[in-house]
Design brief:
By secondary structure, this protein is α/β, with parallel strands linked by helices. It contains 10 helices and 10 strands.
């Protein structure tokens, strides 16, 4: 039976990955969250599911992350932030914890089979994908989410330093929205303009099951039209640009 780990199972992507994984009784699932009560509030059925083990605590607690990753076939790393807050480093923290935990596993057992990391990235970080869209749109996204993308880029460069022994697949979707399944298609050419978190989660699971995408940037298309466009997106862009050009506002709001 396959064993998976889901890091960040209370977020939009991670919760959808977990929801789909538990539908298959053959899956063994290790779930990492910072807040177990929040997870059980969102997904109360996992508390009684014998195939689900919950690991909660600080992301920097390597013993917790190591226990969560031990013996898994793939790790869905979905810990992320959508807010363009200065000094964001959640992706870097996640990458470092994963690498240190897996190195610890290797030191304990050099013959241990290590999982593939299915890493949530963005099409905005892949020139092959973003150059096929309007340049002004790419500029807008990179500035409205510069702190988020900067954090992601640093994290992915750190992961690449361990390429000789670490297998990572970069999932690089286009715009993400809350919507139902429309049917996904794995794609190495052009992302869908908008993709539901549900379709992203299904695509990540397909990548884990198929294998063969190590160190590639995989994006997704949709099989049917009708993915909703969230009307909150313009507001998020304005907020992100504000934090980009006036970062002191974010610090003021935080205090």
């Amino acid at each position: 039976m396959p064993t998976y780990a889901v890091l960040g199972a209370t977020g939009s992507t991670g919760s959808n990955v977990l929801r789909l994984l538990v539908q298959n009784p053959k899956n063994q699932i290790n779930v990492y969250v910072r807040s177990k009560p929040k997870l059980l509030q969102q997904s109360p059925d996992v508390a009684s599911n014998p195939n689900v083990k919950i690991f909660s605590g600080n992301l920097s607690d390597i013993s917790i992350i190591k226990s969560c990753l031990q013996g898994t076939d793939a790790v869905f790393s979905t810990v992320a932030s959508n807010d363009n807050i200065p000094d964001t480093h959640i992706a870097q923290d996640t990458a470092q914890s994963i690498v240190v935990a897996l190195m610890d596993i290797r030191m304990t057992n050099p013959d241990a089979k290590l999982p593939t990391i299915i890493w949530l990235s963005s099409a905005s970080l892949n020139e092959k994908y973003h150059k096929k869209g309007p340049a002004i749109l790419h500029w807008l996204l990179m500035n409205a989410f510069n702190h988020v993308y900067g954090d992601l880029a640093h994290a992915e460069r750190y992961l690449a330093l361990h390429k000789k022994w670490l297998n990572v697949v970069l999932m690089q979707p286009g715009g993400l929205v809350e919507d139902k399944h429309h049917g996904h298609e794995l794609n190495l050419e052009k992302p869908a303009d908008f993709l539901s978190y549900a379709d992203l989660a299904a695509g990540m699971i397909e990548v884990a099951e198929k294998g063969g995408y190590d160190w590639q940037g995989v994006t997704l298309g949709v099989k049917s039209k009708g993915t909703k466009i969230e009307y909150a997106i313009p507001g998020r862009l304005v907020k992100g640009l504000t934090f980009h050009y006036f970062p002191w506002i974010a610090y003021f709001r935080r205090s």
